[in-house]
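Researcher: Good morning. I'm working through a list of sequences from a screen, and I'd like to move beyond sequence-only analysis. For each chain I'm collecting a predicted structure so we can compare shapes side by side. This is the next one on the list. No need for commentary yet; just the structure.
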Amino acid sequence: MIKVQNIIKTYKTGNLETKALRGVSFKIDDGEFVAIIGPSGSGKSTLMHILGCLDIPTSGQYFFEDKDVSSLSDDRLADIRKNKIGFVFQSFNLLPRMSVLRNVVLPLVYMGVQRDEREKQAKIALQNAGLDESRFHHLSNQLSGGEIQRVAIARALVNNPSLILADEPTGNLDSKTGEIVLETFQNLNRQGRTIILITHEKYIAEHAKRVISFKDGEIIEDIASIQSKIIGQIKE
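Model: Good morning. Structure tokens for this chain:
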């Protein structure tokens, strides 16, 4: 699904240049659950913006589903974001005066999906995200933090994207609620969803099957997570 080749990202402020990414290369296959971890300033957020087609690299190539998207126009990048990538953010980004169902339906309105079909797809997405049907018609500001994040996950799923990109999705949640949300991602991955999780917390990254660690704009480690290793040992 994803192939990154020698990606460099440089930011310029006057005469000052800052290299956020320094020749990054890796591949992610369909159906993987990968965590990208690193401290603040490590380059992981810059990489997330490139993987999510929110930005382009200064040099190097980024292939998404075998297409080189490294230097596409803003309009072409927007099409990929709309049709191929589902985003889940730390801040939820739901509309508080709209019902849960309406929040999830909204992306399909912009895509021109017929009313009956988009409500059907929204309900399926909410069920896949693990939200109880009794909550579908509540306002988003009437839900708990964990329920709100599940709605955000459903909204990311509703257009059946190739990739789910989650940026610090448990950052505004307590540890118990965060665990429930992470289990939701694991269940989605078992269904075949490709997920990239951006985090600075090691215990969160361990919920993925593979962990790519960043420091100073470079990959310092790319290994199977501890949980994945344990499961592999049990199967053996």
